[in-house]
Amino acid sequence: MNRIIIIIIFVIGFVQESFSKDDEQFNLGLKKIELKEYREAINIFTKIIKSKPTSYAYYNRGLAFDKLNVNDSAMIDYTQAIKINRKNFEAYNNRGTLKDKLGDRESAYKDYDIAIKINPNYALAYYNRGISRSETGDRKGALNDYDLSIKFDPNYGNTWYNRGILKSDMGNDSSAISDYTEAIKLNSKFRDAYYNRGNVKRRLKDYTGAISDYNQTLLIDSLFVNALNNRGLAKYGLKDVDGAISDYSEAIRISPYYYLPYCNRGIIYFEQRRATGSSSDYMNDYNKSIQLKSDYSNAYFYRGLAKKFLKDYQGSIDDFSQVVKLEPNYAYGYYNRGLVCYEWEKYREAIPDFDNAIKKYKDYKEAYYYRGMANYNLGKNDEACNDWRKAIELGYKEAEYVLQSYCK
Fold it and tell me: pLDDT tens across 97-130, in order?
């Protein structure tokens, strides 16, 4: 119901190696960059370039242009810095980050390579190349680059953080938690490291640990609605229904156009209130979630379940049809549409959905069982018995009774 938020940061530094500390204008230009007064920095470095066009004067003016998103000028300056000094590995690195930002990932990768060849201990280039590799699906290469970046600069929290994201994506959750923890040690206010560590803990069903991390996230940023939403998920994992609803409602109050907490609150309302027959709360939440994000398959799925419960069979089928349209490989979507057809006594229509569910997940024992029930109701006893036998083989004991009763 929620994915880990991945925040990738391209880091760019500035240098002054070609000038002495006594060069007041150059140092003033660097100070302006540090103070984020980029236009003033551009003016200063432009004057320096007119009198002394060195590689690092172009480099730092390029950095100021880069910060202002004046991309063409930044690219020209980085390239000129490289022409003057082919060993300026910082310029290669920065030109690479700019190319990455502009979508020229292949060329960016080459610049990172050159920067590393010039300075094999340059942690920042390994870091940026790791990001580039990760985004192109080269997880093994990205992991190696992050390892090298940490080796040469273990004090940069973003590398630990991004390596944690990568490890989590690769299924190594315990190691990911360790990396997020290192990032937090280096920066106790690292909001997203707490948040992502909480997400991993929640996935591992360490709901108490997840809530602790979300609490820290919200102490740093009380308006971070993703953390409120996910803390609600963790609280619901601990059966704290009121706490979960409170978090979802607060997320909605802060960000009324955020679709996730509506759906998640609707799920709780449905589970808690369906016995009373009161449907307005959960249906309103599902409807709002879909209104805000028309391609959110989870909201259609849970609304489909609610409509099935309310005996709105056509409405339920419509919602599950939307689910399989958005998620064509989602076996559970086909299965539930088949169940609606079965309950509505549309046995012939149910069978293709159970077929598809089994195609997507060959060990779907419940789908075999209900396909057997549909076949039996259509008078196809042999097909029904074969399905029930398969369901029993897969461990679905409920099929034993019908097999003994109707199959010889």
Answer: 999 999 998 999 999 999 999 999 999 999 999 9
CA distance 267 to 264: 5
Residue 55 lies in a domain: no
Q: Would you put residue 299 in left (φ > 0), alpha (ψ -120 to 50) or beta?
A: alpha
3-state secondary structure of 252: helix
pLDDT digits (tens, 9 = 90+) for 304-360: 999 999 999 999 999 999 999 999 999 999 999 999 999 999 999 999 999 999 999
**Residue 325: in which H helix or E strand, if any?**
helix 313-326
Can you give the pTM of this predicted structure?
0.87
Sign of the CA dihedral running 89, 95, 101, 105 = negative
Q: In this structure, which amino acid lies at residue 150?
A: I
Domain annotation covers residue 280: no
CB 194 within 8 A of CB 213: yes
Q: How many domains does the chain have?
A: 1
* 65 touches 81 (CB < 8 A): no
Query: How far from 72 is each of 10, 68, 78, CA to CA, in Å?
Result: 18, 11, 10
- CA 143 to CA 105: how far, in whole Å? 18
Helices (H), ranges, 53-190: 55-67, 71-84, 89-101, 105-118, 123-135, 139-152, 157-169, 173-186
Question: Using DSSP, how many helices (H) and how many strands (E) does the chain show?
Answer: 23, 0
Residue 22 has a CB neighbour count (10 Å cut-off) of 7
Question: What CATH number did the domain enclosing 358 receive?
Answer: 1.25.40.10
Containing domain of residue 357, as a range? Answer: 329-408
Residues 247, 202: contact at Cβ < 8 Å? Answer: no
